[in-house]
Design goal:
This protein is an alpha/beta fold and 301 residues long. Helix content is 36%, strand content 17%. The protein has one domain: Rossmann fold (3-Layer(aba) Sandwich), CATH 3.40.50.
């Protein structure tokens, strides 16, 4: 990692202790070999890194609305190409977008899809913490089945979110871009490898990175790496990539741990361990098993 490039996000931000996205940003941008321009959707990363009149960013940075970070970078990338054609810019620049799952799975999906379809030369990264954390932990389409949130509260009539997570990796891959990958902050070597590949792509590329949220998942700030590690060891969050349409599983546990080992680390799932919710817990394990089998099957094709 180039030490100067790793300083693209300075320590002067107000992210929660135990938040994963500062490490995600630094790790990915540390693999860049050219100057970068950042577009950032409204969300936790934006509000904690750009508290007026200060900024933690040491690179050109554009704050976009919740829904249009991918559209913003599309315009900047085309302006750059026009300037380069006229000889006004000589250097090679990589354009990068950061968004949370609310601004990617949901509100920003249309802009992302359009930018991917048009083939802009940019890397989109979603730090996936499974909810609208910046506005108080409302459910998103990335929220896992059975999780308790402010809009899927736990009570006599509810055992948490009843819908399955959206298959965003599959949706992005359907745009026929050359590189799509799922990574985890707990596996830095894998994340670096995928960041390096994604940044080298001439055209659109996409990374989704598991990003535990200490505040709304309700776990001690010191535990975010351990919890993220469990997510992959239980097959809740597989590490895989889709390169030129071919699926590759990057790591598979020889003896996967029960998904309960991951769930019990977080307050958002504590209700699943009551006698009443045993069937819900069993259903979560079934969902995890089936989804991992589906991905592994695609890797065998």
């Amino acid at each position: 990692m180039n030490k100067d490039l790793a300083k693209k996000l300075a320590p002067g931000h107000s992210a929660c202790a135990g938040c994963a996205f500062p490490s995600i940003v630094r790790t990915i941008l540390g693999e860049a070999t050219t100057p970068v321009v950042i577009s950032n959707a409204t969300g936790c990363l934006e509000v904690t890194s750009t508290i007026y009149p200060y900024t933690a960013w040491n690179v050109p940075y554009i704050h976009s609305a919740f829904e249009n970070a991918a559209a913003t970078i599309s315009g900047v990338e085309r302006a750059y190409l026009a300037a380069r054609k006229k000889g006004k810019i000589k250097k090679k620049i990589k354009f990068v977008v950061f968004g949370g799952d609310g601004g990617t799975y949901d509100i920003g999906l249309q802009a992302l899809s359009g930018a991917l379809e048009r083939g802009h030369n940019f890397l989109y990264i979603v730090y996936d913490n499974g909810g609208y954390m910046n506005t108080g932990n409302q459910r998103s389409s990335a929220t896992p089945y059975g999780a308790g949130t402010e809009t899927t509260p736990i009570g006599e009539e509810s055992s948490g979110k009843v819908e399955l997570r959206k298959n965003l990796m599959g949706i992005v891959a359907a745009h026929n871009i050359s590189y799509v990958a799922q990574a985890n902050i707990a596996n830095m070597a894998d994340l670096k490898m995928k960041a390096k590949k994604a940044l080298a792509v001439d055209g659109p590329s996409f990374l989704t990175v598991f990003s535990p949220c200490t505040n709304n998942w309700k776990f001690p700030t010191s535990q975010y790496v351990a919890i993220a590690k469990l997510a992959t060891e239980t097959n809740f969050w597989p590490l895989y990539e889709i390169e030129n349409g071919k699926y590759k599983l990057n790591w598979e546990p020889k003896m996967p741990k029960p998904v309960a080992d991951f769930l019990k680390t977080q307050g958002r799932f504590k209700h699943l361990f009551s006698e009443k919710n045993k069937p819900v817990l069993a259903q979560v394990q079934k969902i995890v098993n089936e989804e991992f089998a589906r991905i592994a099957g695609l890797c065998e094709i």
